[in-house]
Amino acid sequence: MTIQTDLGAVMTSVAQAKGLPNAHYVSQDVFEEEKQAVLFDQWSGVGFGKDVPEIGDAMPVDFLGMPLLIVRDRDGEVGVFQNTCRHRGMTLVEEPRKIEGAIRCPYHSWCYSLKGELKSTPHVGGPGRNTHKDIKRDELGLIEVPSYIWHDVIYVNVNGNAAPFEEVNADLMARWGEFSAPMVHGGTASSFKLEVATNWKLAVENYCESYHLPWVHPGLNSYSRLEDHYDIEVPGAYSGQGTLVYRQMTGEDGTVFPDFGKHSEHWEEGAEYVAVYPNVLLGIHRDHYFAIVLEPKALDQTLEHVEIYYSEQGAADPTLAAMRDANAMLWKGVFEEDVFVVEGMQKGRKGVLFDGGKFSPEMDGPTHNFHHWVASHVDAARR
Description:
The strands form four sheets. Strands 11, 12, 13, 14, 15, 16, 17 and 18 form an eight-stranded antiparallel β-sheet that branches. The chain is α+β, with helices and mostly antiparallel strands.
């Protein structure tokens, strides 16, 4: 039986609210409840378009036990399917690979197109007979999972009951509407992962506020100070922080990364870091962009998938390779500084007398916004 946590104190104003109860970080029952209400019922990040760059590329993903298959079809479009044969439930693709012809089940060789259509059912009507009146191929295609790609992050709505992605995230898409130029992945060095012993929500909570900068990121705070930041809060959608003093990386000869096309004055020295609920963290600047997909591996284990992107020229120019590497190392260092914090909060949630904590109305608005969102969806599912 699921623990019925009291969420009333979370779903109130930041000045009066408490944080999510301990059980939302240490109870397996509540973890399973959030899996459905928060991760499967909403648009969650599960991968990146850059991982299936060419026609026929297939990437299997285990999303909290749900077997998914990301495929780029012959029209260049990316689809996400349940990675399960419609015949006897066999896993179709075990490892990332190129599919030259059809997606073939290794069990009885039922075959599917890259769009999930059932194309071949060998011997289904008996030896040498590949059809049967009761096997209706047009009804037995792979089960497609609703998906959407924005700035190369692949989002899925596993339970299929969320509003369209463009509707849910309309405000953020408009806010960053100036960034319409292609964003191209920076290459091998621009991709890394961090294994963190924490509940996935704590990584979101820490990312979306700037309150911790002076103590956790002293290097970053030396030029992008706490007072140079502003909060970003859109109830029911996303939250984060922005800086007014973004400083471009420069090479020894003064070289900088090319911009993502033309931009307004705000982005000359401005940058924003936003948590797209539930599990995607984005950072956007005039000359580079990063995306972090938080993969909940267990109640207290999270894998952070980090990818960094540039303009077409910025990603392709070989003379910028050393700068791309340096930029990746800079961000990796920043994100590693957060590890002890999110792991420490996970350990702290085992303190049975902790009551969810007290928010600073001035500094913790983005974090409370996320807590309120989680609590609202859990509460709605219970009802």
